[in-house]
């Protein structure tokens, strides 16, 4: 018997926002909004729908969350490190 294909969600509950997701390239390696305002970030997230890079929700300005609120792009992933960590703003959980 062959191996079963793994879920794109890994061990997390299923998230339909991952269905049909095309690979994107990060547009930068910094948060453009923070850089323009002289702000700082704790971590960076990349939008998995368009490649926009923004500061994480634990950063003072939370530009990744603002990007979701402006665009309805539901998925973001940690930038760099190859962690595979992804967040769905709609479900408010890792996917």
Number of domains: 1
Helices and strands, in order, run as: HEEHEEE
Strand content: 15-25%
Mean pLDDT: 86
Give me the CATH architecture, please. 2-Layer Sandwich
CATH class: Alpha Beta
Number of helices: 2
Rounded Rg: 14 Å
The counted number of beta strands is: 5
User: What summary fits the major beta sheet?
Assistant: 5 strands, antiparallel
Helix fraction bin: 10-25%
Output the CATH homologous superfamily. Answer: Zinc/RING finger domain, C3HC4 (zinc finger)
Please give the order of strands in the largest beta sheet: 2-1-3-4-5
Shape: globular
CATH topology: the name is Herpes Virus-1
Please identify the structural class as seen in this structure.
alpha+beta
Can you put this structure into words, describing what you see?
16% of the residues lie in helices and 17% in strands. The protein is α+β, with helices and mostly antiparallel strands. It has one domain: 2-Layer Sandwich (Herpes Virus-1).
Write the layout of secondary structure elements.
Blueprint: H1 32-37, E1 44-47, E2 53-55, H2 63-71, E3 75-78, E4 86-88, E5 93-94
Antiparallel strand pairs: 1-2, 1-3, 3-4, 4-5
List descriptors:
single chain, 95 residues, alpha+beta, Herpes Virus-1, disordered N terminus
Summarize the structure.
By secondary structure, the chain is α+β, with helices and mostly antiparallel strands. It is built from two helices and five strands. It is globular and about 40 Å long.
């Amino acid at each position: 018997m062959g191996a079963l294909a793994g879920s794109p969600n890994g061990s997390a509950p299923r998230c339909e926002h991952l269905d049909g997701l095309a690979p994107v390239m990060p547009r930068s390696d910094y948060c453009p909004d923070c850089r323009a305002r002289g702000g700082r970030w704790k971590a960076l997230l990349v939008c998995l729908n368009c490649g926009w890079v923004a500061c994480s929700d634990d950063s003072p300005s939370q530009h990744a969350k603002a990007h979701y609120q402006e665009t309805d792009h539901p998925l973001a992933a940690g930038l760099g490190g190859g962690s595979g960590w992804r967040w769905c703003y709609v479900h408010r959980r890792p996917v």
